[in-house]
Amino acid sequence: MADSQHGRLIVLCGPAGVGKGTVLGRVREQHPEIWLSVSATTRQPRPGEVNGVNYFFMTEPEFLAKEKAGEFLETADVFGLAHYGTPVKPVVEHLERNIPVVLEIDLQGARTVKRRAKELGLEVLTVFIEPPSFEELKRRLIGRGTETPQQQAKRLETAKVELAAAPEFDKRIVNNVVDEAADELWHIIAEEFGL
């Protein structure tokens, strides 16, 4: 699908606490034309969440039928509580209009998207956001204060696995200074989409 007139799907990955969302948010403040892929989920909407904006909310049978029909780039069953997935159709529609599409996802999801995209004839550019050091990642994760010490320990163990996978990615950005990392990410996107 991607040719000289279409950029590739940008898959953004990195360990929890590295600042993926912050970096991407900074880029989108300056470049709102970037479309952030919206996931589908079977969980209930939280207060203030809007269908089609935050998530595509659906019932479990509806989700499973779409999954069986191959309508997702990737899916995940989170702790048996809810299903999440990335719908293929809106991603393709935006790419065909040469609108930059970014999918912020975990390592397992990034690997699945690469595999599935190949089956669909989509091209993918993978970008890994990494911390300046593991100690800095640990400091940031603990500093967020959003998880219990047990959850932090689990996330740090997962982060070690994710950091070891960084060489699998097409591009790597060290998030030492948010504005610099955001500039680097924007340059990758702009080059990919001829902006």
Overall description:
- The protein is of the alpha/beta class.
- It has one domain (9-193): P-loop containing nucleotide triphosphate hydrolases (Rossmann fold).
- Helices cover 44% and strands 20% of the residues.
- The chain contains seven helices and nine strands, in the order E-H-E-E-E-H-E-E-H-E-H-E-H-H-E-H.
- The chain has helices spanning 20-30, 60-68, 88-96, 107-120, 134-144, 149-164, 178-193; strands at 9-13, 35-36, 40-41, 56-57, 72-78, 82-87, 101-104, 124-130, 171-174.
- It has a five-stranded parallel beta sheet with strand order 2-7-1-8-9, with helices on both faces. A four-stranded mixed beta sheet has the order 4-3-6-5.
- The longest helix is centred in the C-terminal third of the chain and has 16 residues, at 149-164.
- The protein is globular and about 45 Å long.
- Report strand order across the widest sheet: 2-7-1-8-9
Q: Look at the structure and give the mean pLDDT.
A: 90
Assign a percent range to the helix content: 40-55%
Count of the separate structural domains: 1
Shape: globular
CATH topology: Rossmann fold
Count of β-strands? 9
> Total number of helical segments?
7
Q: Give the C-alpha Rg.
A: 17 Å
**CATH architectural name:** 3-Layer(aba) Sandwich
Q: What string, H for helix and E for strand, traces the elements in order?
A: EHEEEHEEHEHEHHEH
State the distance separating the first and last CA atoms: 19 Å
State which percent range the strand residues make up: 15-25%
